[in-house]
Specification:
This is NACHT domain-containing protein. By secondary structure, this protein is an alpha+beta fold. Among the domains are: 228 residues, P-loop containing nucleotide triphosphate hydrolases (Rossmann fold); 86 residues; 89 residues, Arc Repressor Mutant, subunit A (Orthogonal Bundle), CATH 1.10.10; 174 residues; 228 residues, Methylamine Dehydrogenase, Chain H, CATH 2.130.10.10. The protein is 28% helix and 30% strand. Strands 2-3-4-1-5 form a five-stranded parallel sheet, with helices on both faces. A four-stranded antiparallel sheet has the order 8-67-66-65, with no helix packed on it. A hairpin with a 5-residue loop joins β57 and β58. The longest helix has 24 residues. The protein is globular, with a radius of gyration of 36 Å.
């Protein structure tokens, strides 16, 4: 493709066009920096050498051009890039710049390279475009640089470039202007991997001298390094003289000033050459100074320079004196005008220290100086500060701010910019701007836009980009995002600064989160708050308490605030703990909410963060220092900060293993193992098996420097991870649930061994691979094994429910037990404690000399994973939360509420953190330091709510629990439990006895009130049905369903019970049997009865295998005639799981609500089905809360599974979410009434959402 049509896409797919990229190509650099190629005739030898290297057969694949500031590296890089483009050799270029937000980091480095490669070559575009159409490729665009390189460049281009003979040149300039050491390292390592794996690629990289880079390049080898300062003086002087002679010739002068007859003399050129020394930046800056537009007199400007030379006794060999000469134009020597000095320092200091370039108009607000006064300063500094048509001041060269902020170099305090003072002034001004401009609902959104996502809300209210800029102007955006960057360096003893911070935190902090959400910068909130808390570490004040609350607030509600800024007040604030200072200070901002919350949390819980791994998590592991942890699934490993829960990196591959010291992560794809650092950068070491089979399991030991892989062909391979030397290979790996694991000390390697007749565990020396022992092979096999933390023991549970433990050094048997359960196993750090689990129990065991002994049986249902801490706290994950058990005191001490199947858990070694991974991809991190491990939790209900029902007038609420209890509550004016006989203190013992006799023995699964609220019914899994008084909770009678109970319903005269074989009816007056509708074909799960008892609706779930994993099922609704005992209508193929069915008063419609909040109206006359809620039907339902004509109901997001409450506002055709519940709130049951919604939780809490009686604006 020729250069003329280089911007024509070969394959213009939307995925390529939408690749995130920076404006960092070499000609973008020229446009922004007003720079260009080397002056003709200069750098001739160097440019020739680089061109020969790029096109020749040199074995080195990277050319590193290193040089001091101002020596001309970027000009050389631009020249090479431009010439390579002319020859159609330039595949891509990236010019880093400290001044540009998308060019001072590596986040978009490889995506920008990938985009340019698509423009460069048609085959490259097709290969990369195809990858971008896949889920993995699309996801890679937002991941770490290493992931981007692997997914978007290496993998798609590997097969294409193998036969290519022409080189593909990539030019990368100014690596030193990439902000972070880690990011610079990831760029260099990625480029090294690029040229190693794709041989046609050659990389030219320019940078200032970097100690880290020098060490890396020395260790990796194979790179050509040239240091610009090594060029001979006479060559550099000749280049600079050639440049100056041309730039100061009569022709060049008259291009700018046509009437001038002046040009520089030979003596003047000689003086400038001597002044420049070896730095081209001095020569180019001198030209800009001489042609200063404000002076408009090049001859006079030259004389100023010459007089300055005469003033200095030593030759003008460095930049410092030169910069002083320029600065004397604005601050004369011995200047005694403080206003001039202050204005200069404020303007130049702001330009130097702002975190991104800002236009003069925004700078004026930020430093509170008039625009004209800023221009007056900049007019005198045109040779060092570029002010282009966009009115954004940019420093020409980093050496200028380096000089201004260095006390040793810039000795005049009037010229020097004091870093701390300047940052203090900017930070103070940031707080002034925010405290003045921030407010609730800053965009003025109305209904329904205020409840919608940010994007939809702006569209709904018709807010244009111009209006958005007007309401959130640039100075407010900058202050909101970057105030902490300035505060971090500022003087926190400054009174004005601290007063601004205090006002911001006490009065405007939530409004700040709203703005960050609207401008898509909410990610910066975590860091900002943590920085301030660290700065205030020694203080104990309301300020620190509020900031601590704010950190909890943003961690807990990040997702909902990011989605919709105003849900900061609608959803996050109502669920903020009522005892927190933040709640008390800001709850006034929730005064206009549609719903009020009762029964929410009082204090912050232990949850630090709820993260998304992106797939079922099967491994959780902490680093030995407790600072990091990993979550792992097939095809993905993520590394997290163990203090905050923020992501560190994502490692690509199919199978993974992590060294105990977190020094190395090993990842495999097919037959190749790649080693990574925890920051996600590849280490360069790779191992490829010679087998045709793929790698199935990986294990890594940093202690013994070994890596092991189990392959699909049943072989296990053992290598030295340092030099990739194969140590041994053995056969026999296999089994239903095979494992491969090093002991924590690295001295032993164990794997599941399988033959045609037996399954067991093979134990080998972890260093040499020599055989140690076969651990009890048998036909039943060993399903799962674990090493103790000290590596001294290995334990296993088998398919026959047996538990066995061995000495891992010798392989000697310690003990075997039967009937222990096979669905869970964990072993303590020193091997002295074990825990096993089955469906209904967790059993604890200990080693006693030569055998295993049981020490405790815990009655717990559905334990799915377990873990011991180093201080012997046992964590047991159930479907309703994680229970913490103190083995020493033999008592449960706490429950961490969160629903779902946890497949993996781990405590941090310092016992301060617990992390759990779930099969839905969630990862939770808790701070457990505040949990008292020495005593049981306070008394109260800690079992899950399994059922709820409200009386029609919402005055009564009935709750059913996992332990079989039923509670009746009065809801007005506040929630209050009604206990039979509770007022008769003498009968207290009798009450508890009666209550115990009256409770269900199995979990309560079904509840219902009659239409008048006089009676309610409860039912449990074993088929027991109890009828109670709705007023005082007295038991009226007990019935028994013929099978496993699923649902109950009451009319004024009939009780209906749905069970796994049909529906049975009883008369309420005498509890006499009426009829059973047998439904043997499928499972009856819901039942509803018309108010006049004439019709009954039942739901059958038509189950499939997929239902086990929670997928949507097909429901069938049947209509039964109570009088004639017949089925009068059937509605098939309803693609939802139905939660509630309600007859309209005239029995003309049956309104169905799914568990996700989707409504269907079943017309009982013409048998038609209408999808979606209709206002006409909803307002007639007795169980739908109505707020001033607006119906509100429960919903659940189909993707995130998060619960929320929607409203159908009359002016909007679709319902909008008016309140989101926290993601970690494990909702187990919910019910609706005419004026409230009740939500039950896995930790036993019941939360009421009340509708206000007054109109909300």
């Amino acid at each position: 493709m020729s250069r003329n049509n280089s911007h024509v896409f070969h394959v213009q797919t939307q995925s390529i066009i939408s690749l995130p990229r920076a404006e960092a190509v070499f000609n973008d650099y020229q446009t922004k920096k007003k720079s260009g190629p080397c002056f003709e005739g200069t750098r001739v030898a160097l440019l020739r050498e680089m061109a020969d290297w790029a096109t020749g057969p040199d074995e080195s694949r990277m050319y590193i051009l290193s040089g001091l500031a101002g020596i001309g590296k970027s000009t050389v890089a631009y020249t090479i890039a431009s010439r390579a483009a002319d020859l159609n050799l330039l595949g891509a270029s990236f010019f880093f710049s400290r001044d540009e937000a998308d060019r001072n980091n590596s986040k978009r480095f490889f995506t920008t390279i990938a985009y340019q490669l698509c423009v460069y070559n048609e085959r490259f575009a097709k290969a990369i475009g195809d990858v971008l159409k896949t889920e993995r490729g699309s996801a890679a665009t937002t991941k770490d640089p290493q992931d981007q390189l692997q997914a978007l460049i290496l993998n798609p281009l590997r097969s294409i470039v193998q036969s290519r003979t022409r080189p593909i040149v990539v030019v990368v300039d100014a690596l030193d202007e990439c902000d972070e050491d880690d990011e610079r390292g990831s760029v260099v390592k990625g480029l090294t991997q690029l040229v190693r794996e794709l041989p046609p690629f050659k990389v030219i990289l320019t940078t200032r001298p970097q100690p880290y880079l020098d060490r890396f390049l020395y260790s990796s080898g194979g790179h050509k390094i040239f240091r610009l300062q090594d060029i001979e003086d006479k060559v550099v002087d000749g280049d600079i003289r050639l440049y100056l002679n041309h730039s100061l010739s009569l022709e060049a002068v008259q291009e700018r000033y046509p009437q001038r007859q002046w040009c520089a003399s030979a003596e003047e050129i000689d003086s400038l050459v001597r002044a420049a020394g070896r730095l081209f930046i001095i020569a180019s800056t001198a030209i800009r100074y001489i042609f200063d537009k404000t002076a408009s007199n090049p001859a006079a400007q030259m004389q100023k320079l010459l007089r300055a030379f005469a003033r200095y006794l030593t030759p003008f060999k460095d930049l410092d004196h030169f910069y002083i000469i320029i600065l004397r134009n604005i601050v004369p020597e011995n200047c005694d005008n403080d206003d001039i000095v202050s204005r200069y320092q404020s303007v130049v200091g702001a330009i130097i220290f702002v975190q991104r370039p800002l236009p003069v108009s925004t700078l004026a607000h930020l430093i509170n100086i008039d625009v004209d006064d800023i221009h007056a300063v900049l007019d005198h500094l045109q040779s060092v500060i570029l002010l282009d048509g966009d009115d954004v001041p940019r420093i020409y060269h980093k050496s200028f701010p380096d000089f201004l902020t260095d006390q040793a170099r810039c000795e005049d305090p009037r010229l020097r910019i004091d870093t701390r003072i300047c940052h203090t002034q900017i930070a103070t001004r940031c707080f002034e701007i925010m405290n003045k401009r921030l407010k609730r609902n800053i965009l003025g959104l109305g209904n329904p836009a205020r409840f919608m996502s940010n994007e939809d809300g702006l569209k709904e209210n018709g807010i244009t980009d111009e209006q958005l800029q007007e309401r959130i102007p640039q100075q407010l955006r900058y202050a909101s995002v970057y105030w902490v960057n300035h505060l971090e360096v500022a003087n926190i003893e400054d009174e004005a600064l601290m007063n601004g911070l205090e006002m911001f935190v006490h009065e405007h902090m939530l409004y700040w989160l709203e703005v960050l959400s609207l401008i898509r910068k909410l990610d910066s909130a975590h860091h900002a708050i943590r920085v301030v808390l660290k700065l205030l570490n020694s203080t104990s004040s309301d300020l620190q308490k509020l900031l601590s609350d704010a950190l909890h607030f943003i961690e807990k509600f990040y997702g909902v605030i990011k989605r919709s800024a105003l849900h900061t007040y609608h959803s996050a604030l109502p669920f903020t703990p009522t005892n927190s200072l933040l709640y008390r200070r800001y709850i006034k901002d929730a005064a206009h909410n549609i719903c009020t919350i009762e029964g929410g949390p009082e204090n912050w819980d232990a949850l630090v963060a709820n993260m998304s791994h992106g797939g079922p998590v099967d491994i959780i592991k902490f680093s030995l220092a407790s600072t990091l942890f990993v979550s792992c699934s097939q095809r993905k490993l993520k590394i997290w900060d163990a203090v905050t829960g923020t992501p560190i990196s994502t490692i690509p591959g199919h199978r993974f293993t992590v060294a105990n010291d977190f020094s190395t992560v090993a990842s495999s794809e097919d037959k190749t193992i790649t080693f990574y650092n925890v920051n996600g950068s590849a280490m360069g070491t790779m191992i490829t098996t010679s087998s045709t089979s793929t790698i199935h399991k990986l294990a890594l030991s940093s202690e013994s420097s070994r890596v092991a892989a189990a392959l699909d062909d049943g072989t296990v391979w053992l290598w030295d991870s340092g030099n990739a030397r194969l140590i041994d290979r053995f056969d026999g790996f296999g089994g239903y649930w095979p494992r491969l694991q090093f002991s924590p000390t690295g001295t032993r390697l164990a794997f599941t061994a399988h033959t045609s007749s037996a399954i067991g565990i093979e134990l080998r020396d972890g260093i040499s691979g020599e055989f140690v022992a076969d651990l009890q092979r048998g036909s039943n096999g060993h399903r799962y094994f674990e090493f103790s933390g000290d590596g001294s023991r290995i334990a296993s549970v088998s398919d026959d429910d047996s538990l066995t433990m061995w000495n891992s050094e010798s392989g000697a048997l310690i003990g075997t037990l039967t009937d222990v359960g096979r669905y869970g196993l964990t072993i303590s750090a020193n091997g002295s404690l074990l825990a096993t689990a089955d469906y209904v129990q967790v059993k604890l065991w200990t080693e006693k000399r030569d055998h295993l002994a049981q020490i405790k049986v815990l009655e717990l249902r559905d334990a799915c994973s377990m873990a011991f801490s180093l201080d012997n706290i046992l964590a047991i994950a159930t479907r309703y939360g994680i229970k913490l058990y103190n083995v020493k005191t033999r008592s449960f001490i706490h429950t961490l509420p969160f629903g779902g199947m946890s497949n993996a858990m781990a405590f941090s070694p310092d016992c301060t953190r617990l992390a759990a991974g779930y099969d839905d991809g969630n990862v939770n991190l808790w701070d457990i330091r505040g949990i008292n491990t020495s005593r049981p939790p306070s008394k109260g209900n800690a079992t899950a709510v399994t059922g709820l029902t409200l009386s029609r007038d919402c005055s009564r609420l009935v709750c059913g629990f996992e332990d079989g209890r039923v509670e009746l509550w009065e809801t007005s004016p506040t929630k209050r439990r009604i206990d039979p006989l509770a007022l008769r203190s003498k009968m207290e013992a009798i009450f508890f006895r009666i209550f115990h006799q009256s409770r269900h023995t199995e979990p309560v699964r079904a509840l219902g009130f009659d239409p008048d609220g006089r009676l309610f019914v409860s039912g449990s899994e074993d088929g027991t049905i109890k009828l109670w008084n709705g007023g005082d909770g007295v038991l009226r009678g007990t019935l028994k369903a013929p099978g496993r109970l699923q649902a109950v319903a009451l009319s004024n005269g009939v009780l209906a019970a749905a069970w796994n074989g049909g529906v049975t009816l009883w008369g309420l007056d005498t509890l006499s049997f009426i009829h059973t509708f047998a439904r043997s074909d499928d499972r009856v799960v819901k039942v509803s009865i018309a108010e006049n008892s004439a019709l009954i609706a039942v739901v059958n779930d038509v189950s499939t295998f997929a239902d086990i994993w929670g997928n949507t099922v097909r429901s069938v609704v049947s209509l039964l005639d109570v009088m004639n005992h017949t089925t009068v209508a059937t509605f098939d193929d309803i693609p939802y799981r139905i939660h509630t069915m309600t007859f309209l008063p005239d029995n003309s419609q049956l309104v169905v609500q799914s568990d996700k909040g989707i409504f269907l109206s079943l017309n009982l006359v013409n048998k038609h089905v209408m999808k979606g809620p209709t206002l006409e039907h909803l307002i007639r339902l007795p169980n739908i809360p109505i707020w001033h004509g607006v119906p509100i109901w429960h919903c659940q997001d189909k993707d995130s599974e998060q619960h929320y409450f929607a409203a159908l506002l009359s002016q909007h055709k679709n319902p909008v979410p008016v309140l989101w519940t926290p993601r970690d709130l494990h909702v187990t049951a919910w019910t609706q009434g005419s004026s409230m919604i009740a939500v039950g939780c896995g930790d036993g809490r019941v939360i009421l959402l009340r509708l206000p009686t007054s109109l909300v604006s």
